[in-house]
Design brief:
globular; single chain; TAT_signal; DUF1501; 15% strand; DUF1501 domain-containing protein
């Protein structure tokens, strides 16, 4: 029995959805990844993507710019903190001593030190779309970058969703926003495999003996698809996407990390979906960096994920060393892997948070919210790497040279993804054309 729910469950503005359930092909609760793993498979060799993609990493809670990429060693002790700068492989660029791998690969990254435009909001909205929460709702009612890619460019393969959100749910819901579709509507919301979508990708009641032949299972899906052609054509866009995804093994195989060499998995690191430090934020789930790379290779255009707990009102210098080390491992493994696979021009990577932290250290050895300045780390996408763009003043309080808005960064990313931010529009609920951004000028230094 195949059921296609007509009413998706809602989270905030409705990005969590229930996908197809295949109830009559019972399997005692085994998931498709477990089925496909039963027969050993040779890993697919690397090859050019043939499409542009982006991996967006949200550092939930607001990372401390002056403890990562913008250390102020000439400032008073209550400003500069306990960390020390180290040289990188790009002369003149220094970063925090707790990111040594990044220091050896700085020529493959770019840092923006002069970001502004962030309100005092604990939410991923700004980092997913370029728009904060305001009177028009989440993301100011606008679509996320992933939703725009879904609408404007569509799927690369109809069996693979163009937009996947890996962010875990959180008690503070705005942290778990993987990128809402806004006025583009639910057909362009991200598929969330860590939510109920993957839970429903289970076959119930068939013994393992009936599934020894993987080819027979897949050909059965093909036969089912062919027999349902007429019904398929009558489905709405949302249900058609769900149908395509769940009658193909391509997405499930992309998410099966057991297909990777264990040595590569160790380079990325492991982890789980537990919130970092037991706090209400992202996890230290390094597997997601590798999964993101596998998903874009399978045809996904945008993958979003959240990482770590950066809201360090206390214990900043006690907890950041562990977290910076894990972030250092995951982000460098991802970018190194993209280069090894020849994908550095096809896949853009960005890691940032919703705002920066106060220059002055508080009485609890922490830093508080500081919307006046923030930072970003970029890689790939055919952008110019090995540079720092912009600066803050002596105490890290405000942008000084080359102030850049979050939307300038989005304009750059859209351009590298093949969408002209100056001319491209998308229709709102009333069918009126809307620009994706108010600030549409890309960053010249990156392109």
């Amino acid at each position: 029995m195949l059921s296609i729910p007509g009413s998706p469950r809602r989270q905030c503005d409705g990005s969590r959805r229930q996908f197809l359930k295949i109830g009559g092909l019972a399997l005692g609760g085994l998931s498709l990844p477990q089925i496909l793993q039963a027969e050993a498979q040779v890993a697919t060799p690397a090859r050019p993507l043939g499409h542009k993609a982006i991996i967006m990493i949200f550092l939930s809670g607001g990372p401390s710019h002056q403890d990562m990429y913008d250390l102020k060693m000439d400032a008073p002790s209550e400003i500069r903190g306990e960390f020390r700068p180290i040289d990188t492989n790009v002369p003149g660029i220094q970063i925090c001593n707790h990111m040594p791998r990044l220091a050896t690969m700085m020529d493959k990254f770019a840092i923006i030190r002069s970001l502004h435009g962030c309100p005092d909001q604990h939410a991923s909205d700004l980092c997913m779309s370029g728009w904060p929460i305001n009177g028009d709702g989440r993301q100011s009612g606008h679509p996320s970058l992933g939703a725009v890619l879904s609408k404007v460019q569509g799927p690369v393969d109809k069996a693979v969703p163009p937009f996947v959100g890996l962010s875990i749910p959180s008690r503070h819901e705005p942290y778990g926003n993987p990128g809402f579709p806004g006025f583009l509507g639910k057909p362009h919301a991200p598929m969330q495999p860590t939510g109920e979508g993957m839970d429903n990708m289970r076959l119930q009641g068939i013994s393992l003996d009936r599934l020894r032949d993987r080819k027979a299972l897949l050909s059965g899906f093909d036969a089912f698809r062919n027999s349902a052609d007429n019904a398929y054509e009558g489905l709405d866009a949302y249900s058609q996407r769900a149908f395509d995804v769940l009658t193909s093994s391509k997405l499930v195989e992309a998410m099966d990390l057991e297909k990777e060499d264990p040595t590569l998995r160790d380079r990325y690191g492991r982890g789980d979906n537990s919130p970092a430090f037991g706090e209400d934020a992202g996890p230290h789930w390094l597997d997601q960096f590798l999964m993101a790379r596998r998903l874009v290779e399978a045809g996904v255009r945008c993958v979003t994920l959240s990482f770590g707990s950066w809201d360090r009102h206390h214990s900043n210098f006690a907890r950041l060393p562990l977290q910076l080390n894990k972030f250092d491992q995951g982000i460098t493994a991802l970018v190194e892997d993209l280069h090894h696979r020849g994908l550095q021009d096809d896949v853009s990577v960005i890691a940032w948070g919703e705002f920066g932290r106060t220059p002055r250290i508080n009485d609890n050895a922490g830093r508080d919210h500081w919307p006046q300045a923030s930072c970003a780390l970029l890689a790939g996408g055919g952008m110019r790497m090995g540079q720092v763009i912009g600066s803050t003043n002596r105490l890290g309080e405000v942008p000084q040279d080359r102030p850049l808005h979050y939307q300038n960064v989005f304009a750059t990313l859209y351009r590298q993804l093949g969408i002209d931010p100056m001319t491209t529009t998308v229709p709102d609920f009333a069918g009126r054309p809307q620009y994706m951004l108010d600030i549409r000028e890309p960053i010249d230094e990156l392109i």
